[in-house]
Each structure stands twice: as C-alpha cells, then as structure tokens.
Design brief:
497 residues; alpha/beta; Aldehyde Dehydrogenase, Chain A, domain 2; 5-stranded parallel beta sheet; 22 strands; globular; binds 2-aminohexanedioic acid
Length: 497
C-alpha cells in the first residue's frame, strides 16, 4: 500500500498543513484501502486570508506585461509535459479513470497552457475611427481582479487549467477551490505554477467543502469573478447569489447529451463512438453520451451490436493498462447510479438490457465499480432520459426519422454536447443548424472537445459563457473603451459636427 502523504493548502504565499475545519482523507475509488493523502479542510478564515493575498498581489501582477505572464504559463505547460506520466498516475489513483484518460486530462492542461500562453501576445482589442478629427478610439481588455475557481473532480487537471491559465495570462489573481474528491492533482498544479514562476500570492489554494470554502468565496466582496463547473443545482444557487452581488459568474453545468444514429450511418463507427461516449470516464463527463437516439430501421441491429461489445468491456483498476472502464468516483456517486437503475426499471416500458449492478466481489471488492448499463425501449420523457446520471448508464430511444431524432435530442433542459452519425450531408447540416447544444459532432462521439474551440452549452447547461478558445477571455477580462482626443479643444460627441 502506498504511503499516506500529507498535503497542504497554499495561502498568502505559504503552504499550510492544517485547516480550520481539520483535515480530510482522499481515497482511491478503485481500492479504498489506498489513502492518497490527508488534506487540510479549509473554511471562511482561509478564504478571507487567501482573497486578501490575491487582492494585494493583483496590484502588481496586473502590471506585468501580458507576454511575460504568458511565458510563465508556457513554462507551466513544459513542466506538465515533463511530469505527464507521474501526474496521470496520481490522478488515476485519486479519481479512478483509466490511465489513457488521465494522460489525456493532463494533455488537455498542456494544450491549454500553450494556447493561453499564445494569448499573451494577442489579447486583441479594436481600434476604430472616431467622429472628429484628431481623435483616436480603441478598446482594450483589462483584467477583472480576484477570480474564485470552483472545480469538479471529473477532470481534475484540465478544468482547473481552463480557468486558471487564461485568468492569469489576463492579469487576474486566483483563489482555487478544487473538488474534495481530487485535491492531490490540484496541489500538484499549484506546485507547478509556482515552479514555473507565478508569484506566490497570485495563486492561492484552499481545499475544503463547497459550504465551508465555496460559499464564502462566492460571498466575498473582493472576489470579482466566480468560475464554477459542477451541477446545475449548485450553479443555480451561485448564479442567484452572484446576481444579487452583481458579480460575474461563469457556469458550466450539467448535460444529457445524445448521439443520433441514422439509418445510413456507418454502424461500426457509430458503435465505437457510442461505447467511448457512454462508458469513457465511466460516464462521468459533462459531455458523456447518456442517450442514444437510433433510427428504427437500424435500431435492433445496432442495439445488438452495442450490447455485444459493452458486455466485454473490462471494468477494473484504471492503473492496469488492460482496464477499459474504471470505478465511479465515490460511494455516493455509485449510490446515485444504483438509484437511477431502480428508477429506470420502475418506469414503464424501459428494459434493462445490460448491467445494472454494482460490482462488489473479487478484484472489484474494494472499489466503487459498476457494470456498463444499457436501457432500451426508453421513452424520451422518462427520468433516465431527462436527468443527468453521471455514470455508465445509457438510455436507448427509437425514432422514426431525423425530425423526431432532433426533437427528442432537444427535449431536455440541457444543451451541452451532441452527435449525429450519418452519411447524408443534408441531414448533417440540418443537425448542425437545429440541434440545441453548445457542441455538435458529426460522425464523432459527444466527448472529445479540443481547447481551441469554445466549450460550454446552452439552456440549463450554463449561463452563456464559453471556456477554452479565445472566448474564455470574455470571462476573465473587462472591456475598456479609450478615447484619445489630441485636437486640443473640446469636441462634443453627437453635438459638434
Ligand atoms: C467535462 O466533462 O466537463 O470533451 C469536460 C471532453 C473533454 C472535456 C470534458 N475534452 O469530453
């Protein structure tokens, strides 16, 4: 068994071992006898201290030229590259997903570092003509101030970097509250940022629960921006409070993503997509495929192919290179999935076609494993077709044609990712236009976003912001319009001709 490490918070330039709420342990979800470490459980006091430090550091960090700030983020990307394997292993231990995926998670952080570093030499604004002679107009992006980053456990590296790297390049300072299920990766990220040259008080890390750390961060008057990825339930509360406090709140919330399989699709390709989309990361992605909408002409054949393959998926410890699906992240996550299986079975007409049970014996005895699960005959209104489960549960819905497929796909409160498999270019273009989602894949699964395109969703998935890409800059900068009048006289806009 690995040794129990003691991890620390990083507040006001110092590593602090104890939290005002004591400590908590973080367990390997594939083997709960493996304790990854002991972590300080912070509270409002730590948030206060961290925000004060970030506010103080902001005064000088905002004046560091953006290309210099970006060089530091580029170095962080280099260090992540050097340590990719070690970080991936730690992440698999604390979060459970398989090594191929944790390597991908670190890679997404590396990609984000290099993309954000490039922005240090862009951060484009506009120069525009003015109404008067000898007058100059331009817009520039200004940093916003102290940013509170509240991040989930499913992408312990990628999602924090989506937020922290561009925020720092833009000249903001940060208080980072990672998920309590994945704090070790967060500590490593902060160590790397410091090693890369981020000045100590510019980045602060406070581990702890949402109520003890997250809420005070949202409430703090000196925190200008909250960027949150997590459940719609929590996101709604943060947005409501943020609205009262007139803060900028960026939210990336739930999804109930669907893959459409049309009758002309390459079924082998669609099968690979469905398996990866539904069971990759054990279904614990915001972008996971949790509904499969299949044309009636190919439905029975495709479902048979799907079950055949899903049955063979190797479920186990993600550290084993042979494993294809790891455990769920925690006991409570497994309980949620179990409850949804009960709900699915009780709802009329749905058939549990595969799986549905926790795996609790042999190699699976010490972790939160669950079988790949498929419901067929699902009706679009059923709870298993409407609510985000965040587990390896796929609901198959049969449809008559493209119109019905798109109507069913759009028929949830969410709108993050979507996919259609078809060889018909007309159907593909109609899907691109009519699907209500922030992301649409043609002949690809619902998972697999790259950092140079906007990431986020419509409807209850978010509040209009987009992470990644240059669109993330709108979260972490304020526009300032600047007029320079070099005429030496008063020129009154809209009045003097
Ligand atoms: C998430 O699940 O919140 O597109 C992020 C993907 C990954 C990111 C997922 N690149 O699935």
């Amino acid at each position: 068994m690995a040794e129990k490490c003691v991890y620390r918070n990083f507040i006001a330039g110092k590593w602090v071992e104890t939290g005002t709420n004591g400590t908590f342990e973080n367990m390997n979800p594939a083997d709960t006898s493996d304790v990854i470490g002991v972590f300080p459980a912070g509270g409002p006091e730590e948030v206060k201290e961290a925000v004060a430090a970030a506010k103080e550091a902001y005064a000088s960090w905002r004046l560091v030229p953006a290309p210099k700030r970006a060089e530091i983020i580029k170095r962080a990307g280099d260090i992540l590259t050097e340590r990719k394997e070690e970080l991936a292993r730690l992440m698999t231990r604390e979060m459970g997903k398989i090594l191929a995926e944790t390597r991908g998670d670190v890679q997404e952080g590396i990609d984000t570092a290099y993309y954000a570093a490039g922005e240090g030499r862009r951060l484009f604004g506009d120069t525009v003509p003015c109404e008067f002679p000898n007058k100059f107009g331009m817009s520039v992006r200004m940093p916003v101030g102290v940013c509170g980053m509240i991040t989930p456990w499913n992408f312990p590296m990628a999602i924090p970097t989506w937020k922290i790297f561009p925020a720092l390049v833009c000249g903001n300072t940060v208080v980072f509250k990672p998920a309590t299920d994945t704090p070790a990766t967060a500590v490593k990220l902060v160590e790397i940022l410091l090693e890369a040259g981020v000045p100590p008080k510019v980045i602060n890390l406070v581990c702890g629960t949402g109520s003890a750390v997250g809420n005070p961060l949202v409430e703090h008057p000196d925190v200008a921006v909250i960027s949150f990825t997590g459940s719609s339930e929590v996101g709604r509360k943060i947005a409501a409070r943020g609205g009262e406090l007139l803060k900028r709140i960026s939210l990336e919330l739930g999804g109930k993503n669907a893959q459409i399989v049309m009758d002309d699709a390459d079924l082998d390709l669609a099968l690979e997509g469905a398996l990866w989309g539904a069971f990759g990361t054990t279904g614990q992605r915001c972008t996971a495929t949790s509904r499969l909408i299949v044309h009636e002409k190919v439905h029975d054949q495709f479902v048979a192919m799907l079950i055949e393959r899903a049955k063979t998926l190797r479920v186990g410890n993600g550290l084993d290179e042979q494993t294809q699906m790891g455990p769920l992240v925690s006991e409570s996550q497994r309980r949620t999935v179990e409850q949804y299986v009960v709900i699915g079975r009780e709802e009329d007409k749905a058939t549990l076609a595969l799986g549905g049970k926790a795996l609790t014996s042999g190699d699976h005895a010490k972790g939160w494993f669950f079988e790949p699960t498929i419901f067929t005959g699902v009706q679009p209104h059923m709870r298993i077709a409407q609510e985000e489960i965040f587990g390896p549960v796929l609901s198959v819905i049969k449809v008559r044609d493209l119109d019905e497929a798109i109507t069913v796909l759009n028929g949830t409160i969410y709108g993050l990712s979507s996919s259609i498999y078809t060889r018909d270019v007309n159907a593909a273009f109609r899907a691109m236009r009519d699907i209500e989602a922030g992301i649409t894949y043609i002949n690809g699964p619902t998972i697999g976003a790259e950092v140079q395109l906007p990431f986020g969703g419509v409807k209850a998935t978010g509040n209009g912001h987009r992470e990644a890409c240059h669109t993330v800059l709108d979260i972490f900068t304020e526009w300032k319009s600047i007029y320079v009048d070099f005429s030496g006289k008063l020129q009154r806009a809209q009045i003097d001709s």
